[in-house]
Design goal:
two-stranded parallel ribbon; Arc Repressor Mutant, subunit A; seven-stranded mixed sheet; alpha/beta; 16 helices
Amino acid sequence: MLKDTSDHGSEIAADAPCASAFDKPQSDSRHYVYLCADADSSQLSVQGVVEALELANYFAGKKYYEARTCDLQSFRQAFKEQSVHSGRSTLIFVGNSIARWPSSRKEACSVKDLLNKVSRIAVAGSAIFVLQDLSLLDGTEVSVHPNFMAALSERTAEPRFLNTAHWSDGKIHSAVGGIAAIQMIIEIVRTDLGGCVADAVETSLGAADRNSEIQSREVWNWGHSALADPVVHSSFEEMRSNIESPVGIHLIARRHGISIRALQRRFMKLFDRTPSQIYQDLRLHHARTLVRQTDMKLIEVGLACGFSSASNFSITFKKKFGQPPSAERTA
């Protein structure tokens, strides 16, 4: 039986921040997610996966994920009906942490011919046995719950089981179950929609590491607005990933096959600010987090955020936040 779980997400997305950036008619760029769970599956995992996808739609300001719960038989039928979307689909199996996945090898193999048409396959908990039934475990690195390692090893010629909460190896994603399944989905969102959306989903679900950096509202707004332009979004994510050793704006522009002037126009259109200004402020926001949450020396903070000297860091920081980093730490 097939159930559309996306109605709630579409209602939220209608009031999403900055949703007006997506008001223009667009081609169908949705990603179809088929969620297969059995009666004994962890309801925490199932509900968490659905909520993570709905939140991703909300923070992206558009209905990117079309999520549906189903069994293997209805998945096969639904996928055939929507074959035009091949290549933009994810198949997720959610099990539990105690008993093995109940479906038969024959049932699992009934969808094997469709697997080369999906973007990725994700499994959680006991659903790891589905990968074994489909002969996808040999030589594939996967996260496996300790309860299932012995049984899987018996029938896997080349086991590569990892002691991690979740892992991805090519198009195969795996999680030991429970909370790890939600974290696995957040990483998938990170790949599809970028770090800002994934971080927002993670924070909203309370799944963020308590020591991880909490984004300022300004940085979140930039990341959200950047989604309106693929070039700006990609450039922004590259900046966020290169704080300590800043990448030259000319190199970012070159990677996108455009001139610096063209990149500046795109940034000005969305932010009314140049790429260099946005990049510097990203580094400053990261520096502010380090000042507040660590005992690093201020000169070390400055160097870790790409500033060449203590004086340059202090002056630039004060211009942005109204006080020097030393005052921020003692506040």
